[in-house]
Amino acid sequence: MGPKHVKKCVSKGKTRVDREQQTKNQFDPLRLEVKYPGTAILLLQCQEKPVLLAAAAALAKFGSKCQENLEVLFDLEIVDSVILLITHEDLFTRRFAAKLLAEMVAISNVRDFLLDADYYIPHFIKVLINEQDIFMHEFSSLILAEMTKDMFGAAQLLKQCQDMNFLFERLRSPDPDVKKNTMQIIYNLLQDPVGAKEIIETKNFNMELVYELFNSPYTEIQKLALDVVTDLVRRNKDDYLHDHFRRTNGLEVLLKFLDNIEWEDLHMDALRILRFACDNPTTAELFNDIGGIKQILKYIEDTSHSKLFMEALDIAVRLSHTSRGRKALYTHGIVDYLLRTLMGNVQANMYEISCHGIGMMTLYNQAAKELTASDCVKHVLDVLKNENLKFSARQAALFALNQLLKCDVKNCQELLDIHGQNYLLWLMKQTGGKVPVEILVGVIECIITIARNQALRDTIITGDIIDAICASFELSCISMNDFKIACCKALSTMCIEKIGKQEFLKAQGPERLYNLLCDVKSIPIRNAAAQLIQLLCADPVLADTFVSARYLNYMLNNRSTARVVPSWDTCIEVLFDAHLPIKFALTGRLSLHDITRDGFYVLRRNVCAFPILDDIFRFKFCPLEPIYVVNCIREEPHESNLEEGKQENTHTNNKRNVFLSQAILHLTMDSKFGRLQCDSYLYDYIELFKCKLIAAESKDVVSKTTQGFVNINYVASRAKMLAKFVVQQMSGPDPLIRCVDHQLEIHLKEIKESIETSVIPLGMLRVGSYLERALLFKVIADRVHLPAALVRGQYGKAWIEIAVPEVRVPIEEETFHCYLKRDLSCPEVITINEPLKEYPQKCEDSSLTPEDHRSSNFPTKLLKPNFIVDLMDCPGDLLPIGSNRARLYCEKKLVCDTVC
C-alpha cells in the first residue's frame, strides 16, 4: 500500500458544510409494500405519525370489506393496539382507530371486552358531547349503538350516564350517519323498561326531532325513526306520552306521510303507528276530529296492496271501540267495507279484522239494523266453521256471532233456522286441548244469549246441551277453569225453565256439580259453583237434591273455606232456607220469616246422621225415632182409576213444594212408605183456627194479611189465641195431668202401630210436650201469617218466640201500659185481659184511620223476637226473653208429678 493521501483544505473565509458528515447519520426513507394484516398491526406500535396513520388507515379499509376480515383481525389480537389509539393526539389517527373499533365491536367478544370495563362507554359519550369532529361523532355513536344492542350494554349505558340530552342534541347533526346511529341508540334504550323511562323523562325529549327524520332521503333513517315512534306510541296507557304525541301533531305527520306514494314500502310502519295510537281513547277522538277516518277509508279504496288494505282496515276497526268512532265510521260507510271483506274471497287474516269490526259495530243501533238486514249470521258462522283459519280468526267470528245474537233476536232465530246450535254443541264437546278455552267460553256465551230470549229458550235448552255443559264439570285440566265458570253461568239461565231443571237432573247435574264445589285448586270455580247452587235452590226439588247429595254436610264441615270463597256462607244460608227440616235439625232454630211448607218434618230426637225423608221412602225403612211430618192435604175419595189418583197426588205435592223427588212421587199409592200420609186433621186444625180468627177480629183483617208482612196490632192477641188452641188439641184425654211425657210415649206407640210407620203426620198427635206443641204452633202460625220463631233447646225442650213491637196499639194499649212505664224491672208474664169478642167493637171506637191501619203493617224481617209464648204452664202467657220465668221455661225440669 502506498502512503496515505492527505487532503488539504483551503480556507476562503466561510464555514464549509461537510455534506458527507450530514448524510452519514440520516436514515434514508424506506418504502415498504405490506401484504399481510399482521405486519400492519405491528406498525401500530410505531411512533412515527405517517406510518401509524397509514397502518391504521390500511387496517380500517381491510376490516370494512367483510365480516371475515374483522374475524381475522380479531384473531391477530388487534384490539389492544387499536384501544391505545382512540386517545392518540393526532386527530386522523383517532378517526381511523375509532372507525376500525366501530367495525370490530360487531364481534361479540370485542363488545364483551368493552363492556367489562367502565371506561369506554363514558369515553365515547364524552366524545359525542365535547368533540367537534363529525367523523369522531359518527364512529363513537356507531360504537355505542352496537354496544347497546346488547341488553347488558343498554343497562351499562343507563348506569354510567345519567343525562340523555346529548342524544337529542346529536339528532340535529348535519351528518346522516350520526343521526342514524343516534336513532339506533334511542331505539335500543327503549327496549329496556328503565331506559324507556329515562328517554321519555329527558329534558330535551321532543318527538318532533324524530318526525323530521321521516322526510330523510335515506330509507334506513326513515325506518329507524318510524320504529322509535312505534315503540313510543304503543304505550297507549301512558297519558303523558300520548299527550306529547298529540301536541306535536304526530297524527297529522303520519297521515301526511301516507299521502306520499313514493314511500309506500314504509306505509306499513306508519299504519302500524296509527293502529297503536287509536288504542288510546283520547288519541282516537282526535283522529276523528282531524278527519282521519275519512282519509283512512279513502286510503283503503285507493291502495292495491292487500297487506296495506288489511292494516288500514284494522285502524278503522280500532276506532270502533268508542261510541263517537262507531258513529263516524257508520257515517262513512264502514259497514259496506266489513260486509265485502266478510263475504268476498280475501286473505285469511282479513276475516279476523272484518269479524271483529262487525262485532263492535253492532253496538251502534243503526249499524246493528243494517247488519241484521244483511243476513250475515250465516257468513260469520261459515268463518267459525272454517278449520283452515287460525283460531284467532275463528274466535273473532265467534265474537261477532255473539254480538249479533245480542243486538237482535232475529239473528238468534236465523242461527236456529240454519241449525247453528248443532255446531256450537259440537264445539263444546271438543275438549281436551282440541279447541282453545276462549272459543269454548264464547260458545257458552252464545248459548246464554239465545237462552235469555223467552220465545227461543225451549229450542236451545236440550238434553244434549245440558249434558255437555255438565260434562265440563268433570274436566281436570286447569286451563278449563274459565270454561267451567261460564258453564255455571249458563245453567243459572237455562235452569229457570222447568225443562232446564228436568234435563239438569237427568244429566246427573247435582252429582257432577259436586266436583266443582270440592275443587280446592281454584277459588273462582268454587265461588261460581256456590253461586249456581244458590240460584238453583229456588226450586225446592233441586234444593232437596242438593241436600240429599250431602252438599250441606260438606260445606259445613269445611266452614273455613268461607275465608277465601265469598259465596260460601251465603250458599249455606240459602241451602238452609231452601230445606228447613235440615236447618232446624242442625241449627235448632227457625226464624220469624222461615215459613214451613208441606213436607216439613222434624225428628223427635236429633240423631247424628240426619235422615232425608226422600231416602226413607226410597229405601222403605222405618226409622227408630218418630218423625213428625207436616202435610196439609185432605184425604181424597178413592178413585176407581188408581193411576189418575197417583197423578193428581203428584201434582198436588209438586204444587205444595213437598221435599220429595219425582221418583218417589210416582210410587204406588198403596205403599206405606211411598207417599206422605194425608193429614186431614192438621188441615181441619188450620181451617178451624182461621174461622176463630175471623170470628174474633173480622174477615177483612184476616183476608188482607199478606205473606212477609204482619199487622202488629194483632200479634199478641193472635199468639194468645193460638197458644190456647194448640194446648187444647195437645192436652190428651185428661188436660189436668201434668206429666205429659209418659202419655206421649204411649200415644206415639199407638200411632205407630196403627199406621205401621214412624213417619207420623203432625195432626194425628193428641198429646204433645214442648216440641210437639211448639211445632203445631209454628205450622198454624205460618199459615195465618203470624210471625213465630221455633227454637229447639236441650233435652227435648222447644219453644216459640214472637215479636211484639213496643209501639202504641189501641187494642192492646192497656195490656202493655204497666210494662212500658216500669224502668227497673219487667213483668214475668204479659196477659191480655180483654175478651177477644170485644176486639171488633174496640176497633170501631178507635181513632185509627185507614192510613193508620196500613202503617201498622211491618215486614217480618224487620222484627226481632222479644217474647216466649207459654204453651205448657200458663198457656197464652207472653214471657219476656231473658226474664227469670223465660229461663225456667227453656231449662230442663228435674221434677215429676208423682200423681201420674
Description:
The chain is mainly α. Helix 21 (306-319) packs parallel to helix 24 (348-361) and helix 32 crosses helix 34. The longest helix has 17 residues, at 391-407. The protein starts with 18 loop residues before the first helix and ends in a 10-residue tail after the last helix. Mean pLDDT is 80; it is low at 1-10, 638-674, 809-813 and 824-854.
What would the keywords be for this entry?
900 residues, mainly alpha, five-stranded antiparallel beta sheet, 59% helix, disordered N terminus
Average of pLDDT: 80
Report the major sheet.
5 strands, antiparallel
Structural class: mainly alpha
Instruction: Order the strands across the largest sheet as they lie in space.
Output: 1-6-7-9-10
How many β-strands, per DSSP? Answer: 10
How far is the N terminus from the C terminus?
177 Å
Radius of gyration from CA coordinates:
47 Å
Q: Enumerate how many helices there are, as a single number.
A: 52
What best-fitting shape do the alpha-carbon axes yield?
elongated
What fraction of residues sit in β-strands? under 5%
- The helix content is 55-70%
Low-pLDDT stretches are: 1-10, 638-674, 809-813, 824-854
Organism: Bombus vosnesenskii
Pfam family, one: EDR1_CTR1_ARMC3_pept
Protein name: Armadillo repeat-containing protein 3
InterPro entries: ARM-like (IPR011989), ARM-type_fold (IPR016024), Armadillo-Ser/Thr_Kinase (IPR052441), EDR1/CTR1/ARMC3-like_pept-like (IPR055164)
Describe the secondary structure blueprint for this structure.
Blueprint: H1 19-24, H2 37-43, H3 49-63, H4 67-75, H5 79-85, H6 91-104, H7 108-116, H8 120-130, H9 134-148, H10 151-160, H11 165-170, H12 176-190, H13 193-200, H14 207-212, H15 219-233, H16 239-247, H17 250-259, H18 267-277, H19 281-289, H20 292-302, H21 306-319, H22 323-331, H23 334-343, H24 348-361, H25 365-373, H26 377-385, H27 391-407, H28 409-417, H29 420-428, H30 437-451, H31 457-460, H32 463-471, H33 481-494, H34 498-506, H35 509-517, H36 523-536, H37 540-548, H38 551-557, H39 568-578, H40 580-587, E1 589-590, E2 601-603, H41 613-619, E3 627-629, H42 642-655, H43 662-665, H44 680-696, H45 699-703, E4 709-711, H46 715-730, H47 740-755, E5 759-761, H48 770-783, E6 789-792, E7 798-802, H49 813-821, H50 839-845, H51 850-855, E8 857-859, E9 867-869, E10 878-880, H52 884-890
Parallel strand pairs: 3-5
Antiparallel strand pairs: 1-6, 2-3, 4-8, 6-7, 7-9, 9-10
Helix pairs in contact: 2-3, 3-6, 5-6, 6-9, 8-9, 9-12, 12-13, 12-15, 15-18, 17-18, 18-21, 20-21, 21-24, 23-24, 24-27, 26-27, 27-28, 27-30, 29-30, 30-33, 32-34, 33-36, 35-36, 36-39, 39-40, 46-48
Keywords: Repeat
Protein name: Armadillo repeat-containing protein 3
InterPro entries: ARM-like, ARM-type_fold, Armadillo-Ser/Thr_Kinase, EDR1/CTR1/ARMC3-like_pept-like
